Known about the structure:
Layout: E1 3-8, H1 13-25, E2 29-35, E3 55-59, H2 65-74, E4 79-82, H3 89-94, H4 96-117, E5 126-132, H5 156-175, E6 179-184, E7 186-188, H6 197-206, E8 211-214, E9 220-225, H7 226-239, E10 244-248, E11 253-255, H8 256-271, E12 282-285, H9 300-306, H10 314-326, H11 329-335, H12 339-356
This protein binds nicotinamide-adenine-dinucleotide and 2'deoxy-thymidine-5'-diphospho-alpha-D-glucose.
Amino acid sequence: MEKTILITGGAGFIGSHVVRWFVQHYPQYHILNLDLLTYAGNLENLADIEHEPNYHFIKGDITDEHFIAQLFAQYPIDAVIHLAAESHVDRSIMDPLAFVRTNVLGTAVLLNACRQHWKTDPDKHLFYQVSTDEVYGSLGPTGYFSEQSKYDPRSPYAASKAGADHLVRAYFHTYQLPVVISNCSNNYGPYQFPEKLIPLVIRNIQQHKPVPVYGKGENVRDWLWVEDHVRAIDLIFHRGKRGETYTIGGHNEWKNIDLVKLICRCMDEKLGRPPGSSEQLITFVKDRAGHDLRYAIDASRIRQELGWQPSISFEEGIRRTIDWYLSHQEWLEHVTSGSYQQYYTQQYIVREQTQSS
Length: 357
Ligand code: NAD
Ligand code: DAU
């Protein structure tokens, strides 16, 4: 069936994988990629598909009500897959209001446009909210987040995503807007902006720079290969139940320090450096404020109902990720110039000085 799908944030890390997947797997869908191209958005991520006939890029701001109204008037949008967001926890600690604006207001503006345009035929439409496990807060050493977990966000980023999720559910209950939400754990893979742990560690090792580990490195994350998240989004988009939530995770928990050491070992091999040399770059820095201890997902619902499961092992995914970053130096140079340098100085150089004083 032909459809016009608006994907927001399609020039970012996960969004670019979602756009590529839908453009390549569903030639009958018209994919509109709406992205503001903030520091995190990069059209080079989509250079391989930019000329496909079922793909169209639109630069614009999801918080701009007038612009979004025009967009919905101009295109026959059947469904929205909403990924556009401010996504980095450390930046949310520096500038929380930017997160409230984009993540809460931006989601509300999109929901409102859908409500106004989708007055009939609910089966034809869907607003898909791509969200995070961070809305559930922090786990102790045991237990898992699932669809039944209570919201307990603890960073400005997590709170802004939680606020957006609440609005999505409110539109379902109040206006019967057809919606679905998924809450996923930490993604990794190609095209991730190198402010996030894995690409940052790879880049710093390559450049012989300190590898910053917050606190003691005891925090635990559940890592998922980005294309496995995309396959889950595809299944939920096509077969997920309206008004419901799906939690997605890799069943792949790593303490930060163990993960960093794994990357160090792989990098020594790949770069032909003496074993142990990258580990010497590890530098413990001041902890993240309010740092959540552990995230872990129980993904049994999506596995049982939709037949989803991760497709590759973590060791394989990490090797592929490192190979990708080492062979995409130009991409790295382009995304790490300018404003990223300023952020890096504020986040790390100042932190290292605070730690050692
Ligand atoms: P990202 O920061 O790489 O990309 C975000 C994209 O949104 C960028 O292309 C940016 O230009 C765009 N954007 C920002 N503000 C905008 C605005 N006002 N209007 C239009 N576009 C705007 O983020 P990501 O890591 O790819 O995450 C994508 C989504 O998935 C987010 O909603 C995030 O909360 C969620 N998520 C991420 C992870 C993860 O591990 N990265 C895990 C679970 C859920
Ligand atoms: O859980 C899903 C979330 O995962 C997404 O919703 C977020 O958008 C995404 O950014 C990610 O959040 P995290 O805060 O978990 O990811 P990050 O890569 O920033 O950090 C991973 C862990 O590594 C975390 O415990 C903090 C730590 N860390 C991070 C950086 C950048 C370090 O020790 N050193 C660092 O330099």
